[in-house]
Amino acid sequence: ETGVTQTPRHLVMGMTNKKSLKCEQHLGHNAMYWYKQSAKKPLELMFVYSLEERVENNSVPSRFSPECPNSSHLFLHLHTLQPEDSALYLCASSQDRAGGGVNEQYFGPGTRLTVT
Amino acid sequence: LAKTTQPISMDSYEGQEVNITCSHNNIATNDYITWYQQFPSQGPRFIIQGYKTKVTNEVASLFIPADRKSSTLSLPRVSLSDTAVYYCLVASYGGATNKLIFGTGTLLAVQP
Asked: Which of A48, A91, A112 is the closest to B98 by Cβ?
C-alpha cells in the first residue's frame, strides 16, 4: 500500500461512453499527477495539479478532462475515447512540486483501461 | 528537455550485484536523477534519488559522475523478487513548468 488508491482497477468502455477514473491520496500531499502507460512505451505525464490548481497539461487531447476538487482527490473524465487510448492510467502524488530538488512520487496501482 | 536512455533488458542471477546505467546527456542544472521500480500491474515505486556523486540507502546505491550525463543504479545481491522494470527519471522543477520524463525502463530478470 502506497497511500494512493485508484478506482476502478479495470475498465472496459466503448468509444461513445463517458466514464471517470478516480484517485485518492491519504498522504497529505499537495501535488497530484496523471500518467499514461501504454504497452512498450515510457510513462507519459498527462496532468499535474498543485494545491488543486492545474500547473501542467502535456498537450493531452480534450477527450481527457481532469478534475481536482481538493488536494486529496483527482479525477480523469473520459469521453469519446479511441482504441489507441487503451493503456494503464496511473495516478501519483508528492509532497510538493515546487522549489529545489524533486519530491518522491507515490503511485497508485493504476486503472487498466480498454477502449473497444 | 533531458531525455534518458537505458538498456532495454538485463539478466542476472541471485546474489549478484547488478548495475543499470542511464544516459542523460542533456541534463540541466536543476535536474535531479531518480530511479523507480515497477512490478507488473503496479505503479512505480521510488528507489533512490541523487544530484551528484554517490547516494546510498538501504536498498541501492546511485553513482553520478561529475558531468552528470549518466547515472548508475547499483543493486547489491539481487534476489528473485528484484525482477522488475527499473526507470531512470530526470526531473526538474521550477517556475510554472514541471517536466517529468521517464525513460523506457530496463527489465531486470533475476534467475535462480
From this structure: A48
